[in-house]
Amino acid sequence: MNKPLGKLAPTRREALVVGATLAGSALLVGCGPADFLSFGSKVEAGAFGPFLKFSPDGAVTVVSKHIEFGQGSHAGLAAIVAEELDADWTTLKVEQAPANARLYGNSLVGGTQGTGGSSAINNSWTQLRTAGAAARAMFVTAAAKAWNVPAGEIAIANGVLSHASGKSSVFGPLVAEAAKVAPPETPKLKDPKTFTLVGTDRVRRKDSQAKSNGTARYTQDVQAPDLLVAMVAHSPKFGGKVASFDDSAARKVPGVVAVHQIPTGVAVLASTTYAAKKGRDALKVTWDDSKAETRSSAQIAQQYRDLASGKLPAPDKAKWAGFDGKGTAAPAATGDLTIAYDFPFLAHAAMEPMNCVARVGKGPPRLEFGSQIPSLDQLNTAKIALALPGSVEIETLFAGGSFGRRANFQSDYVAECVHIAKQVGGGRPVKLIWTREDDMRAGYYRPMVHHTVQVSVDADGYPATWRHRVVAQSIMAGSPTGVPKFDDTAVEGAKGSPYLKATPNVDAQLLLATSPIPVLWWRSVGATHTAYVMEHTIDQLARRAGRDPVEYRRVLYTKAGAGRHLGVLNLAAEKAGWGAPATDGWTRGVAVHESFGTVVAQVAEVKLVNGVPKVGRVVTAVDCGMAISPNQIAAQMEGGTCYGLSAALFGAITLTGGAADQHNFDTYRVLRNSEAPTVETYIVPSTNPPSGVGEPGTPVIGPAVANAILAITGQPTLRQPFVKS
């Protein structure tokens, strides 16, 4: 009944079940990247497809292809299936999918299996509705046959099938017969107007109890006979390599079992975490810094400024590339607004530092950890272990945050663990542990970025010419496809901005800089800096024109045809009481930005206390299409706001001689509970398909606060963080 899908020629049943749920009824044909990534896999799809399991007692389990690392998407994904299936939400369970790109690929991340770009709900919306509706039809057909009644007369509610004759059943007794029914190629989906679960506050997290009582399983919870703990000594400078090392003292530490050199450093293996840490501390390593970064962050920032201003020519093999342009594209006239913005490197600072458990030898490679992009982790593991990508087994566990850190082209910490496990051999489990200091000093960062903007205005004070220069290190440079000629992630949010659409003449260009410093997407990626630049610039233009910032934006949005921007702006302004006096001592600032298909407007109430911004009330309006879980959307807006505010106020990784100065939360300051604002969230009603909410709340708060400070002091805030350490 259940057949492997590792081969390239699916049976008719497999094509119907998998094709309908993965591709909206399009059959799987040929061999693409997902097929390649799945070569060697033994993962099977059940009779009800890859996303649903039914047990004989009637319990329903939704299989989630997206990792749960605190964002709460498991509940939303499960609710989509439960709505179409009419399952009992109170008993429905969620489990993590195994690694198989052919079954669980994400069309929004190149067809690989992975979670990112706020795509979990967006990518899965039609897919999971189809899965639930197909299974529903199969059970209805089975019940109709068993009860000898027309299928059209059978109803399902809360996991119970019933007929007017009085016959009824939960799913369990019908599983065997339903599994024999051919799934419909195009199952009928519900009219969203009839939804009883999706869009209600009934959709609450399914993982809260396990995370509260300690039964939720994280990488640190993995234990096994003969397990070894590994820690790696990394170069203090990015790009440094091991020249030589002396491990004699390390091997004398009680509990230390072995010391191995790997491509990224020297690994110490021990029977306990404490012993591994003490052994690593005892290592004496000489580093080769011939290809390492040796500049300070101040030097890099100055180079970016000089490149943007034209004082320095573009480096060899680097060229300015346009990301928006129209009209005469003449530079701004002398005397109009010219402003430069600097953004520092940022650490992801996830609560759970990086870790992984790997077994290599005696069977296929096996990994246990919080895998954000299993397909990349399979591919990079396969290269090291000399295995087929699909044969690499990954058990994806809960993870304590990521913000992008767990998803990179090199699978950095995963590859380290696999290299070590390969040297250990015999399938013996190795748990690699990075301390927070490791991740702060040897991990990946949000790139340092510089923007220079020159704007000339028309007689009414609105932009007539917009000249924009961006200098940034490319996140996509590490892609398996090679260094890109252009990196959209560096300018997303500025590219296509309604402000540029409303400006007759635009000349916007990007220059990609290079450095050994590893950079990575960080929650909301390019929008982390483009939202700030666009929104803070607009407030300065409104102020110069003597116009209210909200009204100024309304005019530009109308010119650009940006109806969704206008909708969230109006809602946030209304709920915040814009136009009426704020509470004594407080001043309001506004910002609006679109990222990952979602538009967010925020009005922040701010006051200065001894020159330091204090943020009180934040009113948020969000247009994210159809709201699956309003409660979780509000939680994401709250969390994203605090994460973005933390970075704007305090976040910065600085370098001295190519080495990071910050190493933990004592030097990398984050927002305290006592500093967190009150966040109100209002959702714009919509019938559009859902878009992402995990990241869009992050980039808006920084410019909203900066615009409030502008209203207080009359001075723009040109650099982040606002508060110097």
Description:
With 725 residues, the protein is α+β, with helices and mostly antiparallel strands. It folds into three domains: 201 residues, Aldehyde Oxidoreductase, domain 4, CATH 3.30.365.10; 153 residues, Aldehyde Oxidoreductase, domain 4 (2-Layer Sandwich); 317 residues, Aldehyde Oxidoreductase, domain 4 (2-Layer Sandwich), CATH 3.30.365. It is 30% helix and 22% strand. The chain has 19 helices and 28 strands. The chain has a seven-stranded mixed beta sheet with strand order 9-10-7-18-15-16-17, sandwiched between helices. A five-stranded mixed beta sheet has the order 12-22-21-20-13, with helices on both faces. It has a four-stranded mixed beta sheet with strand order 23-24-25-28. Strand 23 and strand 24 form a beta hairpin. Helix 3 packs parallel to helix 5 and helix 15 packs parallel to helix 19. The longest helix has 28 residues. It is globular and about 80 Å long. It starts with 11 loop residues before the first helix and ends in a 12-residue tail after the last helix. The N terminus is likely disordered.
